[in-house]
Amino acid sequence: MALRGLAGSEPSSRGPLEEAVEAAEEREAPVPVAAAVAPEDDEEDDGRGLLRWDGFSAWLHCVCVVGFDLELGQAVEVIYPQHSKLTDKEKTNICYLSFPDSNSGCLGDTQFCFRFRQSSGRRVSLHCFLDQFDKDLPVYLKKDPAYFYGYVYFRQVRDKTLKRGYFQKSLVLISKLPYIHFFHTVLKQIAPEYFEKSKPYLEAACNDVDRWPAPVPGKTLYLPIMGVVMKVRIPTCHDKPGTTQITEQADTHISVILPTVHEVDLFRCFFPVFFHSQMLWELVLLGEPLVVMAPSPSESSETVLALVNCISPLKYFSDFRPYFTIHDSEFKEYTTRTQAPPSVILGVTNPFFAKTLQHWPHIIRIGDLKPAGEIPKQVKVKKLKNLKTLDSKPGVYTSYKPYLNRDEEIIKQLQKGVQQKRPSEAQSVILRRYFLELTQSFIIPLERYVASLMPLQKSISPWKSPPQLRQFLPEEFMKTLEKAGPQLTSRIKGDWIGLYRHFLKSPNFDGWFKTRRKEMTQKLEALHLEALCEEVREQHICVILTTIEKG
């Protein structure tokens, strides 16, 4: 199966919007958009359908339209393309996660993101060949086979012609790709027009996506969508962390240039709690159970994603739900009091959770994320026992005592930026660099020690099995910190040893070490194969030379 236009192609010349819609309407044998998904057992395929949607499937699983039915409540009105498969459980999750809770009062247009578990038993995608691109991605951008992302553009406006008095509808992009900023930008381009023009417009937009080059890391991609051309670059694992490789020079063909595909406005999300940002970094690093209580799905999802992003380039290996509701299929699993709360970050908006999750050890309650114009009244760290009422004030409710001393320098720097009205984007760059340096100072000693577990190259012999990695010994690692610890690269003082001990018991260490061990084992196997090939080559040369001498 060939990939079309792998990457870096020149911007395609797209006709005006009317031509795109007209082409969609006149296309031979169009797929009806107004119908729900085809039955699960419908395997009808003329060989053209799936091939035709290869380009689309590299980026999206499907597009859903979720509306409100007076009798049924939230309902999936459209799943497109029609051959896309979703189980009933997945459709139910999408229905409830695509609308804000009724208490949120989101009038107008709202964008947010959710993440949900893929149903077990789903067949492997025919487009798994695209996973070859996954190996070139940074570890924190690799697809998780067990989860889907949902990117939502929700509109709620008054409409007296409707019985309920409101027009309520969500356009939702379902994807395996964690490219939050990219897909929110796509929705901004197509959702407002879709709500006005409906069916043909959605099909025309999906046809555009189907013509996109594959999402190859490291290539500059030009992606046309309904008369607009977006210029993007997906990062690679070889990029220097904290940098962007895309150029922003003027180009008459380009309408939108995205310097990032996945990052959120970090400072805006941490703005109410930046006095405690280092403590929150520790909680995320250690995989502690964490709840974000916010007034709307937009605030909850952005804050959860900012927390997950703050330990980059380390991957957050536990589960996280940017927006979680009482209807979620994992609600009972995550709110039970019969066992300790799991390692997960939940973003919630329903006041019911203030009581249901009262037993969780760490809760962040935030108000509206207002633009950074003045130094906010910083929320305090409060005891969990104070979180009793539904109208509890914003704050960080925890009994956690940080291992590291607070870095006053970064707080002064951010405060100064607020006073000087420094743009939020610039503040985010400062905060992201701070988190990056903190994470790198923490992870470098671990990387150095793990590298020492690799056998010497001289121990690799073609006559023996590949040598094994040495065992990771926590106490042996701790001894290395005295001379080669984080104090070499970080000015922050505190109980680094205690932080490492806690981290070694966390899901993030488990995931990180399994990944590193797999990479190193593959490297050993490759070196062993290379030694075998060299030995075979030398033997062949000997045979040839012997034959020549005898001849």
TrEMBL record:
GO molecular function: guanyl-nucleotide exchange factor activity
One of the record's GO cellular component terms: recycling endosome
InterPro entries: ABL9/DENND6_dom (IPR018307), DENND6 (IPR024224), Tripartite_DENN (IPR037516)
Domain of life: Eukaryota
Domain UDENN: 61-523
Transmembrane segments: none
Pfam annotation, one family: Avl9
Region annotation Disordered: where it falls in the sequence: 1-46
Protein family according to the UniProt entry: Belongs to the DENND6 family.
Protein name: DENN domain containing 6A
Phylogenetic lineage: Eukaryota, Metazoa, Chordata, Craniata, Vertebrata
